[in-house]
Design goal:
globular; 24% strand; alpha/beta; Rossmann fold; Alpha-Beta Plaits; 13 strands; 6-stranded mixed β-sheet
């Protein structure tokens, strides 16, 4: 029987906890892949299998879940260099380049990932792609002011941009109060590094979901077990 997606996420999360040592600060990501990690981490803290672990959350959602589970929290200002950051991904390339942020927390996720000494990605094998942008849209966080003026720019980059909206039709807002534009690429992203440079130069773009040359390890769960991929 092929494991379901939830089982794969839990298997990947359990294996990723092997990278967490007692007495360390860890960055904790956002989204459905990270939720079983939070539960497993809380269980090990309660059992005493891990001690002295303090977490830096990448979103208000993760912070709330950590408080409910009894996981000690700190801000990045208090703990500016976590030993490790663990997060999920929307896509993982063979070079461990990523698309992340469809959970809406890409800016804080990238800040924490870059601050950490090691960045570990957890995923199920459906997230593996040959070319970024073929499975998931690329989330781009933009300032609300004049956001429509960014659409022609994004289209010139080859994207089909769509503003994320809530169920009631209002614009989705990130924890930073910004909008999220989902950019689809019909044939994937031919040159992720060039795209990231173009987005970084554009006023009004706060951050993009391209995580390039940041991940050091990917823990990938599939029907045949859990694999460790290294960059």
């Amino acid at each position: 029987m092929t494991p379901d997606t939830d089982a794969l996420k839990r298997a990947a999360a359990e294996r990723a906890l092997a990278f967490v040592a007692s007495g360390t600060t860890i960055g904790l990501g956002t989204g459905s892949t990270v939720r079983p990690l939070l539960e497993l981490l809380a269980g090990r803290l309660r059992e005493g299998r891990l001690t002295g672990v303090v977490a830096v959350p990448t979103s208000e959602d993760t912070a709330d879940r950590c408080r409910a589970l009894g996981i000690p929290l700190a801000t990045l200002e208090e703990r500016p260099q976590p030993a490790i950051a663990i997060d999920g991904a929307d896509e993982v390339s063979p070079r461990l380049d990523l698309i992340k942020g469809m959970g809406g927390a890409l800016l804080r996720e990238k800040v924490v990932a870059l601050a950490a000494r090691r960045f570990v990605v957890v995923a199920d094998e459906s997230k593996l792609v040959r070319r970024l942008g073929t499975r998931s849209p690329l989330p781009v966080e933009v300032v609300p002011f004049g956001w429509t003026a960014l659409l022609p720019f994004l289209e010139k980059l080859g994207a089909v941009p769509t503003l994320r909206r809530r169920d009631d039709g209002s614009p989705y807002r990130t924890d930073n109060g910004n909008y999220l534009v989902e950019c689809r690429f019909r044939r994937g992203i031919a040159d992720p590094a060039a795209l990231a440079r173009a987005l970084a130069k554009r006023t009004g773009v706060v951050e993009d979901g391209l995580f390039l040359r940041i991940a050091t390890v990917a823990v990938v769960a599939g029907a045949r077990g859990v694999r460790i991929l290294k960059r």
